[in-house]
Amino acid sequence: MDVIVAIDIGGTKFAAGLVTTDGRVIDRVRCRVDAGRGEEPLFADLWGLVSELLVRARGQHGAVPIAIGIGTAGPIEPNAELVSPLNIACWRNFPLAPRLRELTGLPVFGDGDAKALALGEGWKGAAQGHDNFIAMVVSTGVGGGIVLNGKLLDGASGNAGHVGHIIVEPSGRRCACGARGCLEAEASGPAIEAITGRPPTQPTYETIQRTGRLVGRGIASVCNLLDLKLAVVGGSVALGFGAPFFQAAQSTIDDLCCIGHAKGARIVPARLGDDGSLIGAAAVGLRGLNRRKV
């Protein structure tokens, strides 16, 4: 049995798992991100997860790892050769893929976490059967991945889809990217806590409504621009806020998607749950292997 070693790099946690080539997660591990420890100790934490999975793959599952797939917060250089997650300050131009390639001898393929989500949800989740959609993560950060005509949009540097940096509140809060009023600066978990004084796990109804409206504003802009009718949204904030969040976002989309090709655009929750990030990272790995064969 062949497996992909799937890695999810988030602002607050590292997760890794073994995913079969037909999209089943058969093992998983995770640890908290402690960025204050420095770039090398942080990488050592990640390597501990990966090395444990490599041992388990062969010893417990009788599986053969054929590649590593990475979904990571950005920005990143193509294939995650260098990564600079905004919420991991000690990693700036960190050579993530080369380090893992050197240690494992496996082919390593990386992409943005939300682009990985788009691949995963298109493969096994809420966007199955759709050739045009945006997938979003609303969590510690806000990111996006866009599929057009059945193909994941990469952009010149591989960073296409950064919906978290659409301006939704002109003259709003300063974002980690340097601009003001970005969706990420207004609707991410840390932003919500900074604005309200309450963690996103304890939101008021008004906080849920405001966050939904802002996310709906960002989605509507993308749907109007790119002729999309579907947005698949995951992440701990969006899924944790639940139905009231999605209802507020949908109402805003309905109000703002007035041009003919975008009317009827809808937002739905990501379907893959806690395993979505790992299935997405595995999809990144499989995409890389398939490109090699061409």
Describe the structure.
- The chain has 294 residues and is α/β, with parallel strands linked by helices.
- Helices cover 39% and strands 21% of the residues.
- The protein contains 9 helices and 10 strands.
- A 5-stranded mixed beta sheet has the order 3-2-1-4-5.
- β6 (133-138) and β7 form a beta hairpin.
- The protein is globular.
Helix-residue proportion: 25-40%
Q: Strand fraction band?
A: 15-25%
Oligomer: single chain
Report the structural category: alpha/beta
**Most strands sheet:** 5 strands, mixed
Poorly predicted sequence stretches spanning 5 or more consecutive residues: none
Question: Compute the gyration radius: what is it?
Answer: 18 Å
- Kindly report the average pLDDT value: 95
Kindly, what is the distance between the CA atoms of the first and last residues, rounded to a whole number of angstroms? 23 Å
Q: Numbering strands along the chain, what is their spatial order in the largest sheet? A: 3-2-1-4-5
Order of helices and strands: EEEHEHEHEEEHHHEHHEH
Strand tally, please? Answer: 10
Shape: globular
How many helical elements? 9
What tags apply to this protein structure?
single chain; 294 residues; alpha/beta; 5-stranded mixed beta sheet; 9 helices; 10 strands; globular
How would you summarize what this structure contains?
By secondary structure, this protein is α/β, with parallel strands linked by helices. The chain has 9 helices and 10 strands. The chain has helices spanning 39-59, 96-104, 113-124, 183-187, 189-196, 205-226, 236-241, 243-256, 276-293; strands spanning 2-9, 13-20, 25-32, 64-72, 108-112, 133-138, 142-148, 151-152, 230-234, 266-269.
